[in-house]
Design brief:
Order of helices and strands: HHEHEHEEHEEEHEE
Radius of gyration: 16 Å
CATH topology: Rossmann fold
Strand content: 25-35%
CATH superfamily: Vaccinia Virus protein VP39
Strand order of the largest sheet: 3-2-1-4-5-9-8
Number of domains: 1
Structural class: alpha/beta
CATH class: Alpha Beta
Largest sheet: 7 strands, mixed
Distance between the termini: 34 Å
Number of helices: 6
Number of strands: 9
Length: 214
């Protein structure tokens, strides 16, 4: 499957479940204090360096709105037109655009921050470097990227696919992911690893990597 086919399949899958997804996750940050704290820190770093923030794979826009509430000039980008429409309805004063993470309609060095919360999980390993290259391209020097994804079960396993409820997804070794970021000029500055709850259906560790463009 080509990169274009992968993006199309992901877009169509999320278009189909957008309304259910928006309802299910509309207040998911409420019981995630660690993620809220990290978003607060991310917002402070971006405010210090200056510039807007792109929420890549924004879905129905809850996190974009949260970032806006933290004082950031945040806007959302998603491959799913239906998700973007729901985001615009929920946040009429905010900016949301349809777009691909591998080909962003954003000028070089225009942003102070990029958030990618679980939005890279459907990107096949062969295509991930192109996405990371785009993130690096749109960030200004000194800008920050916060990227979240599920971890593999050991550092010796660089990446592996798993059966996601919507479309095939991928887990990554945090160390390997950090290497890929460095290859594109993004240096890891912090890492948060959240262990799964015993009641979670998938017993995957959640990784939040914060990186800075030199």
């Amino acid at each position: 499957m080509t990169e274009l086919d992968t993006v199309r399949a992901t877009r169509e899958a999320y278009d189909a479940i957008a309304a259910v997804y928006a309802q299910k996750f509309h207040d998911f940050l409420h019981d995630r204090p660690l993620e809220r704290a990290l978003l607060d820190a991310f917002a402070e770093l971006v405010r210090t360096s200056g510039g807007g923030v792109a929420d890549l794979g924004c879905g129905p826009g809850q996190v974009t709105a949260h970032l806006h509430g933290l004082g950031l000039d945040a806007f959302g980008v998603d491959a799913s037109p239906v998700m973007v429409e729901l985001a615009r309805e929920a946040g009429p004063g905010l900016r949301f655009e349809v777009g691909s993470m591998a080909a962003l309609d954003i000028e070089d060095g225009a942003l102070g921050g990029v958030l990618s919360r679980w939005s890279v999980i459907h990107t096949p390993p062969r295509d991930l470097p192109a996405v990371l290259a785009e993130i690096a391209r749109v960030l200004a020097p000194g800008g920050h990227a916060l990227i979240a994804f599920p971890a593999t079960d050991g550092a010796h396993i660089e990446t592996e696919s798993y059966d996601h409820a919507v479309v095939t997804a991928y887990r990554w070794s945090p160390d390997r992911f950090a290497e890929l970021l460095r290859a594109h000029g993004l240096t890891e500055s912090a890492r948060l690893v959240i262990e799964p709850k015993p009641t979670d259906r998938r017993q995957f560790r959640e990784v939040q990597l914060l990186a800075r463009k030199a």
